[in-house]
Amino acid sequence: MISTLDAPVYVERVAITDAKNTARVRRAVRKGLQNQIDNKGFSLIEVLSVCPSNWKMDPIQSKQWLSDNMIQQFPLGIFRDRTGEVPAAENKRHIFHVDGLREALELPVETESTIKVAAPAPEFQDPRIKLAGFGGQGVLMLGLMLAEAGMHAGYHVSWIPSYGPEMRGGTANCHVNLSHRRIGSPTVSRPTLLVAMNLPSLERFENEVVPGGLIIYDTAMVTRAPKRTDVKALGIPASTIADELGNTRGANMVILGAYIGYTSILPKEAIFAAMPSLIKRKNLIPLNEQAVEKGMEFVRNLRG
User: Which of 7, 99, 162, 212 is the most exposed place for a label (fewest CB within 10 A)?
Assistant: First the structure.
Protein backbone atom coordinates (compact mmCIF):
# COMPACT_ATOMS: atom_id res chain seq x y z
CA MET A 1 0.00 0.00 0.00
CA ILE A 2 2.78 2.45 0.91
CA SER A 3 4.49 1.86 -2.42
CA THR A 4 1.39 3.12 -4.27
CA LEU A 5 1.64 6.57 -2.68
CA ASP A 6 3.42 9.47 -4.35
CA ALA A 7 5.69 10.42 -1.46
CA PRO A 8 7.87 7.30 -0.98
CA VAL A 9 11.08 7.25 -2.99
CA TYR A 10 12.28 3.81 -1.98
CA VAL A 11 10.36 0.86 -0.47
CA GLU A 12 11.87 -2.59 0.03
CA ARG A 13 11.22 -5.66 2.18
CA VAL A 14 14.25 -7.69 3.26
CA ALA A 15 14.92 -10.50 5.71
CA ILE A 16 17.67 -11.64 8.06
CA THR A 17 18.00 -15.32 7.23
CA ASP A 18 21.33 -16.16 5.61
CA ALA A 19 24.48 -14.27 4.64
CA LYS A 20 23.09 -13.29 1.23
CA ASN A 21 19.88 -11.81 2.61
CA THR A 22 21.72 -10.12 5.48
CA ALA A 23 23.92 -8.34 2.93
CA ARG A 24 20.74 -7.14 1.20
CA VAL A 25 19.53 -5.74 4.51
CA ARG A 26 22.73 -3.71 4.85
CA ARG A 27 22.46 -2.37 1.31
CA ALA A 28 18.80 -1.43 1.75
CA VAL A 29 19.37 0.40 5.03
CA ARG A 30 22.39 2.20 3.60
CA LYS A 31 20.37 3.28 0.58
CA GLY A 32 17.49 4.53 2.72
CA LEU A 33 19.85 6.55 4.90
CA GLN A 34 21.56 8.04 1.85
CA ASN A 35 18.19 9.11 0.44
CA GLN A 36 17.51 10.86 3.74
CA ILE A 37 20.90 12.58 3.71
CA ASP A 38 20.27 13.76 0.14
CA ASN A 39 16.76 14.99 1.01
CA LYS A 40 15.28 12.85 -1.75
CA GLY A 41 12.23 11.88 0.25
CA PHE A 42 10.72 9.11 2.32
CA SER A 43 12.20 5.60 2.33
CA LEU A 44 10.77 2.52 4.05
CA ILE A 45 12.76 -0.65 4.63
CA GLU A 46 10.79 -3.48 6.24
CA VAL A 47 12.99 -6.15 7.82
CA LEU A 48 11.69 -9.64 8.58
CA SER A 49 13.59 -10.96 11.57
CA VAL A 50 13.50 -13.92 13.93
CA CYS A 51 12.53 -14.08 17.60
CA PRO A 52 13.77 -17.43 18.96
CA SER A 53 12.66 -16.71 22.54
CA ASN A 54 9.01 -16.01 21.77
CA TRP A 55 8.86 -18.65 19.06
CA LYS A 56 10.41 -21.18 21.48
CA MET A 57 12.93 -22.31 18.87
CA ASP A 58 16.68 -22.30 18.63
CA PRO A 59 18.25 -19.74 16.22
CA ILE A 60 18.65 -22.21 13.35
CA GLN A 61 15.05 -23.42 13.61
CA SER A 62 13.72 -19.87 13.79
CA LYS A 63 15.59 -18.82 10.62
CA GLN A 64 14.22 -21.85 8.82
CA TRP A 65 10.69 -21.06 10.02
CA LEU A 66 11.06 -17.48 8.78
CA SER A 67 12.13 -18.74 5.34
CA ASP A 68 9.42 -21.41 5.10
CA ASN A 69 6.52 -19.41 6.52
CA MET A 70 6.97 -15.66 6.89
CA ILE A 71 8.57 -15.04 3.52
CA GLN A 72 5.77 -17.01 1.86
CA GLN A 73 3.25 -14.59 3.34
CA PHE A 74 5.40 -11.46 3.03
CA PRO A 75 7.45 -11.78 -0.18
CA LEU A 76 10.80 -10.02 -0.31
CA GLY A 77 11.62 -7.46 -2.96
CA ILE A 78 11.82 -3.83 -4.03
CA PHE A 79 8.33 -2.37 -4.32
CA ARG A 80 9.41 1.10 -5.38
CA ASP A 81 12.73 2.70 -6.23
CA ARG A 82 12.75 6.23 -7.62
CA THR A 83 16.17 7.02 -6.18
CA GLY A 84 17.70 7.65 -9.60
CA GLU A 85 14.81 9.84 -10.76
CA VAL A 86 14.56 12.20 -7.80
CA PRO A 87 17.25 14.90 -7.61
CA ALA A 88 18.97 15.60 -4.33
CA ALA A 89 17.48 18.64 -2.63
CA GLU A 90 19.45 21.40 -0.97
CA ASN A 91 20.04 20.60 2.68
CA LYS A 92 18.82 23.75 4.41
CA ARG A 93 19.97 24.31 7.94
CA HIS A 94 17.28 25.42 10.35
CA ILE A 95 18.75 27.54 13.11
CA PHE A 96 16.89 27.20 16.38
CA HIS A 97 16.20 30.36 18.38
CA VAL A 98 14.79 30.10 21.90
CA ASP A 99 13.17 33.53 21.59
CA GLY A 100 11.26 32.38 18.52
CA LEU A 101 9.95 29.35 20.40
CA ARG A 102 8.86 31.50 23.32
CA GLU A 103 7.01 33.82 20.95
CA ALA A 104 5.29 30.91 19.17
CA LEU A 105 4.16 29.41 22.50
CA GLU A 106 3.19 32.85 23.85
CA LEU A 107 5.53 32.45 26.81
CA PRO A 108 6.83 35.45 28.75
CA VAL A 109 10.28 36.75 27.92
CA GLU A 110 12.87 35.05 30.10
CA THR A 111 14.31 37.32 32.74
CA GLU A 112 17.14 36.79 35.16
CA SER A 113 16.05 35.31 38.47
CA THR A 114 15.84 37.77 41.36
CA ILE A 115 16.30 34.98 43.92
CA LYS A 116 19.87 34.96 45.17
CA VAL A 117 21.52 31.55 45.48
CA ALA A 118 24.49 31.01 47.77
CA ALA A 119 27.30 29.00 46.20
CA PRO A 120 27.16 25.44 47.58
CA ALA A 121 30.31 23.46 48.27
CA PRO A 122 31.81 21.95 45.08
CA GLU A 123 30.63 18.43 45.93
CA PHE A 124 27.01 19.64 46.06
CA GLN A 125 26.99 21.68 42.84
CA ASP A 126 24.90 20.60 39.83
CA PRO A 127 23.33 17.66 41.69
CA ARG A 128 21.97 14.54 40.03
CA ILE A 129 19.18 13.44 42.34
CA LYS A 130 17.20 10.25 42.86
CA LEU A 131 14.24 10.41 45.24
CA ALA A 132 12.57 7.17 46.30
CA GLY A 133 9.91 5.83 48.65
CA PHE A 134 6.43 4.36 48.81
CA GLY A 135 3.67 5.78 46.66
CA GLY A 136 1.76 8.28 48.79
CA GLN A 137 4.85 9.62 50.61
CA GLY A 138 5.07 12.60 48.29
CA VAL A 139 8.23 11.48 46.50
CA LEU A 140 7.10 12.75 43.10
CA MET A 141 5.92 16.04 44.61
CA LEU A 142 9.30 16.43 46.29
CA GLY A 143 10.98 16.05 42.91
CA LEU A 144 8.60 18.51 41.27
CA MET A 145 9.20 21.01 44.05
CA LEU A 146 12.96 20.74 43.61
CA ALA A 147 12.68 21.23 39.85
CA GLU A 148 10.24 24.14 40.11
CA ALA A 149 12.33 25.84 42.80
CA GLY A 150 15.43 25.26 40.69
CA MET A 151 13.82 27.18 37.82
CA HIS A 152 12.99 30.05 40.17
CA ALA A 153 16.66 30.08 41.19
CA GLY A 154 17.89 30.14 37.58
CA TYR A 155 19.02 26.53 37.15
CA HIS A 156 18.51 24.30 34.14
CA VAL A 157 16.27 21.54 35.49
CA SER A 158 14.72 18.20 34.57
CA TRP A 159 12.30 15.86 36.34
CA ILE A 160 11.00 12.45 35.31
CA PRO A 161 8.91 10.07 37.43
CA SER A 162 8.98 6.31 37.78
CA TYR A 163 6.48 4.38 39.86
CA GLY A 164 5.09 0.89 40.26
CA PRO A 165 1.69 -0.39 39.10
CA GLU A 166 0.06 0.82 42.32
CA MET A 167 0.86 4.47 42.80
CA ARG A 168 -0.34 4.63 46.39
CA GLY A 169 1.36 1.93 48.42
CA GLY A 170 3.57 0.84 45.51
CA THR A 171 7.14 1.95 44.95
CA ALA A 172 7.83 5.37 43.50
CA ASN A 173 10.96 7.21 42.51
CA CYS A 174 11.91 10.15 40.35
CA HIS A 175 15.00 11.69 38.84
CA VAL A 176 15.87 15.38 39.15
CA ASN A 177 18.76 17.36 37.68
CA LEU A 178 19.74 20.89 38.71
CA SER A 179 22.53 22.30 36.59
CA HIS A 180 24.20 25.51 35.49
CA ARG A 181 24.65 23.89 32.07
CA ARG A 182 22.17 22.40 29.64
CA ILE A 183 21.10 18.92 30.69
CA GLY A 184 21.93 16.16 28.23
CA SER A 185 19.74 13.44 29.75
CA PRO A 186 17.02 13.60 32.41
CA THR A 187 17.72 10.08 33.69
CA VAL A 188 19.91 9.67 36.76
CA SER A 189 21.73 6.35 36.93
CA ARG A 190 24.58 7.51 39.22
CA PRO A 191 23.06 10.05 41.63
CA THR A 192 25.09 12.47 43.69
CA LEU A 193 22.11 12.62 46.07
CA LEU A 194 19.78 9.81 47.11
CA VAL A 195 16.72 10.55 49.23
CA ALA A 196 15.38 7.29 50.70
CA MET A 197 12.04 7.64 52.43
CA ASN A 198 11.76 3.93 53.23
CA LEU A 199 14.07 0.95 53.76
CA PRO A 200 13.41 -0.79 50.39
CA SER A 201 14.51 2.38 48.60
CA LEU A 202 17.75 2.58 50.56
CA GLU A 203 18.50 -1.09 49.92
CA ARG A 204 17.72 -0.78 46.22
CA PHE A 205 19.55 2.44 45.36
CA GLU A 206 22.34 2.84 47.95
CA ASN A 207 24.99 1.30 45.71
CA GLU A 208 24.11 3.61 42.81
CA VAL A 209 25.29 6.74 44.65
CA VAL A 210 28.65 8.06 43.46
CA PRO A 211 31.54 7.98 45.95
CA GLY A 212 31.47 11.21 47.92
CA GLY A 213 27.74 11.57 47.30
CA LEU A 214 25.03 12.23 49.86
CA ILE A 215 22.25 9.97 51.18
CA ILE A 216 19.39 11.55 53.12
CA TYR A 217 16.99 9.13 54.77
CA ASP A 218 13.95 9.27 57.04
CA THR A 219 15.01 7.58 60.29
CA ALA A 220 11.36 7.16 61.28
CA MET A 221 10.87 4.86 58.28
CA VAL A 222 14.37 3.49 57.59
CA THR A 223 15.56 1.15 60.33
CA ARG A 224 19.26 1.21 59.49
CA ALA A 225 21.89 3.69 58.39
CA PRO A 226 23.57 3.37 54.98
CA LYS A 227 26.25 0.68 54.96
CA ARG A 228 28.66 2.49 52.67
CA THR A 229 31.53 4.45 54.20
CA ASP A 230 32.48 6.38 51.04
CA VAL A 231 29.36 8.59 51.05
CA LYS A 232 27.93 11.19 53.40
CA ALA A 233 24.75 10.23 55.24
CA LEU A 234 22.15 12.48 56.84
CA GLY A 235 19.42 10.81 58.86
CA ILE A 236 16.42 12.89 59.91
CA PRO A 237 13.16 11.76 61.60
CA ALA A 238 11.15 13.51 58.91
CA SER A 239 7.89 11.62 59.46
CA THR A 240 8.03 12.25 63.21
CA ILE A 241 8.66 15.98 62.71
CA ALA A 242 5.79 16.15 60.21
CA ASP A 243 3.46 14.41 62.70
CA GLU A 244 4.40 16.95 65.37
CA LEU A 245 3.43 19.73 62.97
CA GLY A 246 0.05 18.08 62.41
CA ASN A 247 0.93 17.43 58.78
CA THR A 248 1.70 13.71 58.48
CA ARG A 249 2.21 13.93 54.72
CA GLY A 250 4.70 16.78 55.10
CA ALA A 251 7.72 14.51 55.66
CA ASN A 252 8.84 15.19 52.09
CA MET A 253 9.01 18.93 52.80
CA VAL A 254 10.95 18.30 56.02
CA ILE A 255 13.51 16.35 54.00
CA LEU A 256 13.58 19.12 51.40
CA GLY A 257 14.35 21.64 54.13
CA ALA A 258 17.12 19.41 55.49
CA TYR A 259 18.61 19.07 52.01
CA ILE A 260 18.75 22.78 51.23
CA GLY A 261 19.96 23.51 54.77
CA TYR A 262 22.75 20.94 54.50
CA THR A 263 23.96 21.86 51.00
CA SER A 264 22.83 25.48 50.34
CA ILE A 265 21.84 24.33 46.85
CA LEU A 266 18.66 26.44 46.98
CA PRO A 267 17.41 29.22 49.24
CA LYS A 268 14.12 28.65 51.02
CA GLU A 269 12.69 31.61 49.07
CA ALA A 270 12.93 29.54 45.87
CA ILE A 271 11.01 26.69 47.54
CA PHE A 272 8.32 29.04 48.82
CA ALA A 273 8.01 30.67 45.39
CA ALA A 274 7.41 27.24 43.83
CA MET A 275 4.69 26.12 46.23
CA PRO A 276 1.67 28.07 44.89
CA SER A 277 1.93 26.46 41.45
CA LEU A 278 2.24 22.91 42.84
CA ILE A 279 0.05 22.79 45.95
CA LYS A 280 -3.62 22.87 44.98
CA ARG A 281 -5.02 23.39 48.47
CA LYS A 282 -3.64 26.83 49.26
CA ASN A 283 -4.46 26.50 52.96
CA LEU A 284 -1.74 23.82 53.15
CA ILE A 285 1.03 26.12 51.92
CA PRO A 286 1.84 27.56 55.39
CA LEU A 287 2.10 24.02 56.83
CA ASN A 288 4.49 23.01 54.05
CA GLU A 289 6.57 26.14 54.61
CA GLN A 290 6.79 25.24 58.31
CA ALA A 291 7.92 21.73 57.38
CA VAL A 292 10.74 23.15 55.24
CA GLU A 293 11.76 25.46 58.09
CA LYS A 294 11.80 22.52 60.53
CA GLY A 295 14.06 20.53 58.22
CA MET A 296 16.49 23.44 58.01
CA GLU A 297 16.32 23.89 61.78
CA PHE A 298 17.17 20.21 62.32
CA VAL A 299 20.37 20.61 60.28
CA ARG A 300 21.34 23.80 62.14
CA ASN A 301 20.90 22.05 65.49
CA LEU A 302 22.83 19.04 64.23
CA ARG A 303 25.78 21.22 63.36
CA GLY A 304 25.53 23.09 66.64
Answer: 7
Quick one: the chain helix, strand, coil %, rounded to 5?
A: 45, 20, 40
237-294 pLDDT tens trace: 999 999 999 988 899 999 999 999 999 999 999 999 999 999 999 999 999 999 999 9
262: nearest Cα among 148, 127, 93, 157: 127
DSSP bridge pairs for 152: none
Note the maximum CA span of the chain. 79
Enumerate residues 6+ apart whose C-beta is below 8 A from 194: 129, 130, 131, 132, 202, 205, 206, 208, 209, 213, 214, 215, 216
* 257 neighbors 268 (Cβ within 8 angstroms): yes
Strands 156-163 and 42-48: unpaired
> What type of residue is 59?
P
Q: Which residues contact 192 (CB under 8 A, 6 or more apart)?
A: 123, 124, 127, 128, 129, 209, 210, 212, 213, 214
Helix 285-303 with 251-263: angle, nearest 10 deg: 40
Q: pLDDT tens across 23-36, in order?
A: 999 999 999 999 99
Whether this prediction's pTM lies above 0.70 is answered by no
Q: How far apart are CA 67 and CA 50, in angstroms?
A: 10
Domains and CATH numbers, the chain: 2-81 (no CATH), 122-303 (3.40.920.10)
Q: 139-152 and 268-278 are packed helices; what angle lies between their axes, rounded to 10 degrees? A: 120
Find residue 195's DSSP bridge partners. Answer: 131, 216
